[in-house]
Design brief:
Shape: globular
Strand content: 25-35%
Number of strands: 24
Helix content: 10-25%
């Protein structure tokens, strides 16, 4: 019997086993998924916890609830992958052999990689919202914070959901305005990019939104250290930005076992063919979702669109046929902008976010690069879609590949 082994039961790994198990003959294939946690987290919801919009307990469900019948779920930490021997070793000494391996262990924030970030001020004057614990600690901080210099900071790209720090800044502006203390808060958005976002058209729109909310933008800031004692972050070009409260997005990195196994780049992401997710070094290893190095957003929508094409490619590959479904880097993300509104961006490897309507030209109902209430409700409704449609591997009535229909190209 052939063995498919999946490392990681997060978004991409769970979708992978739900889509592949029905396609693989149960008499010929065993499917196993390994994950250290017994709970599955809806990570996009972390953004809302500090502002009291989401309760932390509503974002967590048992992992096994989403693993299909016929898939073995093993609880454990991966120690290393021996790609030459086709063996995965777990931290407890268990060895699992495989014929095909899917790496889906995502990316995590690493505050330890920036001097001073996780030291004396951590969870006091220095916070993050990219983890379950961090979002709750920040909620406690904001609940009785009386104002001062709030700095929202991105260490380096790529990060999970690259619009989330901007969303936090917009939501913070609205939160403090509704609390009646916006005039007591000096908001600054600090980024290593040369503008508010990675793509020029979207960067202009988002930069204008920062201006209109009186949120200062500090671009091209490559952080060297955090000095919590004196309340400042310092860049390599010796700029200093003072803070009373720092909300940072630490460096994001792939799993450490990827480095130990010699499978990753300098950030522990697995180099893959961006069209098929097949490892560039090993013909029986795929890396999906946030675990790979494809040049698009590390976001749940990317994992979803990848997985819509992945099943057909996997079947062709194991049969020795060419993989004909080529992923184009399609991503779309709702951008929460505060006061019950949001905008939507839709893009891929080659086409940047543009204004227009999505998914139906001229109808929408969602607006691209424009704030609307229905976009906000779309963002909130996505949590239900995530639990009931995406994770179980069901199809959405949306194209996996990006369409230019409904997009305004005048800004190009």
């Amino acid at each position: 019997m052939k063995k498919l082994l999946v490392l990681g039961a997060g978004t991409a790994g769970t979708m992978a086993v739900n889509r592949l198990r029905p396609l693989l003959d149960a008499d010929e294939w065993s499917v196993t998924i390994v994950d250290p946690s017994g709970t599955h987290h809806y990570q996009p919801g972390y953004l809302f916890v500090p502002f009291g919009i989401n309760r932390a307990e509503d974002l967590v469900k048992p992992t096994k609830r989403f693993i299909p019948e016929g898939v073995e779920l093993i609880s454990g930490d991966v120690d290393r992958v021996d790609a030459d021997a086709n063996i995965v070793s777990l931290a407890d000494g268990t060895e699992l052999s495989y014929d095909y391996l899917i790496i889906a262990t995502g990316t995590t924030p690493r505050p330890d990689q920036t001097p001073g970030m996780d030291e004396s001020g951590w969870r006091s004057s220095v916070h993050e919202f990219y983890t379950f614990e961090g979002s709750q600690a920040l909620a406690d901080k904001l609940a009785d914070w009386e104002g001062g210099r709030l700095v929202v900071h991105v260490t380096e790209m790529p990060i999970k959901c690259p619009v989330a720090p901007l969303e936090f800044a917009f939501l913070a502006d609205a939160y403090f305005e509704e609390a009646g203390i916006r005039d007591k808060v000096e908001l600054t958005y600090v980024t290593p990019l040369d503008g508010a976002f990675t793509k020029p058209v979207a960067s202009k729109h988002l930069g204008d939104m920062l201006d209109s909310r009186n949120i200062a933008l500090e671009a091209d800031f490559m952080i060297e250290s955090v000095d919590a004692e004196h309340g400042r972050i310092v860049s390599y070009d010796e700029r200093e930005i003072p803070f009373d409260l720092l909300v940072t997005v630490p460096l994001n990195m792939g799993a450490d076992y990827v480095e130990r196994s010699g499978l990753g780049d300098e950030l522990n992401y697995v180099p893959v063919d961006p069209a098929t997710m097949l490892s560039r070094a090993h013909d029986n290893i795929f890396a999906v979702g946030d675990a790979n190095d494809i040049p698009t957003s590390k976001a749940g929508s990317v994992a979803h669109f990848e997985m819509e094409l992945f099943g057909a490619n996997f079947l062709n590959h194991i049969a020795g046929r060419p993989m004909r479904e080529h992923f184009d880097g399609h991503a779309n993300c709702f951008v929460e902008t505060g006061h019950g509104k949001a905008m939507l961006i839709d893009f891929n490897y080659d086409t940047q976010p543009l204004p227009g309507k999505y998914p139906l030209p001229g109808i929408g109902p969602f607006s691209l690069l424009r704030e609307s209430e229905i976009n906000h409700w779309g963002k909130l409704m996505f949590r239900w879609m995530y639990w009931h449609v995406l994770l179980p591997g069901k199809d959405l009535p949306l194209p996996a590949l990006m369409s230019m229909a409904g997009k305004d190209t005048e800004d190009l």
